[in-house]
Fold this sequence. Notes:
The chain has 330 residues and is of the alpha/beta class. The chain folds into two domains: 26-135 and 273-299, Rossmann fold, CATH 3.40.50.2300; 137-271, Response regulator (Rossmann fold). Helix content is 45%, strand content 17%. It contains eleven helices and twelve strands. It has helices spanning 3-19, 38-57, 75-87, 104-112, 137-151, 168-184, 201-215, 227-239, 255-262, 274-289, 313-319, and strands spanning 26-31, 62-66, 92-95, 117-120, 132-134, 156-162, 188-196, 221-223, 247-251, 268-271, 297-299, 303-305. The chain starts with a helix and ends in an 11-residue tail after the last helix.
Amino acid sequence: MNQRRILIVTLMALVSCRDAPKSKALTIAVVPKGTTHEFWKAIHAGAVQAEQELNALGGDSVHVIWKGPLREDDREQQVQVVEGFTSQHVSGIVLAPLDSKALVRPVEEARAAGVPVLIMDSALESDAMVSYVATDNQKGGELAADRLGQLLNGKGNVLMLRLQEGSASTTAREDGFLKRLKDNYPGIRIVSSDQYAGVTRETAKKASENLLNRFGADLNGVFTPNETSTIGMLLALQDMGKAGKVRFVGFDASQIMVDAMRAHQLDGIAVQNPMRMGYLGVRTLVASLRRQPIERRIDTGVTMVTPEMLDLPATKDIIAPPIGKYLPGG
């Protein structure tokens, strides 16, 4: 082979190497509202499941980073976490915004910096997102209203304890609950719907005690819109000797709630699918980064679980997701 042919072959090889697709590691930051509750552990497990499955398929490697505030009312810390990941130029962020307004600026700044953000669990008042993966929270509230309305035969006094201001997901549940009762159960009187539980069991229990002391004598039913508010109300009812005497419907799942349903102290829980939410959040963002078609809105489902349903195979997967399979000590 003469020198000219050698040069041509070498140049062709260089061009081929240059044009060949290169494997790109994708770093996906998953930012929950908090990191202590069972709900967020299930979200984390779903994100890890997606990471493992994507890596098993080959192609671009995917690495999930999990970081969020300890408490679900620490908006400033969540803002700082998002800003930190933006400055690190991660491939993308999956975010459950603590506040529908407070997280708008950091999300829009992330997009401007070339870091796409997928919103999960709770809505954001901005279009600066690649997709929204969440429960139909209004439907969850409607399911809770139907369960309580049917238990009370359409009449009685009911109170609702809200979670906190700015939380779009629980606000949608609360609004759905109130509207469905008003529209379908006119014989039910809402005696209180403007009090807030706060984000811990302790604050929820205190708020519950105050409400029960005020309205308990004539109270027939209660609704609480998330894990901590439900547990706080349950503890207050137990301490005051009212557990099982007041019809009670909550939201989300934990072993404490399952035990309470078996003890006939909780009449139902609207249950989301947090593992699926974390899983689809990561899978959808990665698909977007790979320029694959994605849906703008993905509904991850909500189910009303009653005590009679606890041992059904289909129920077990949503009230006790396989967290331990994906998280050490989960």
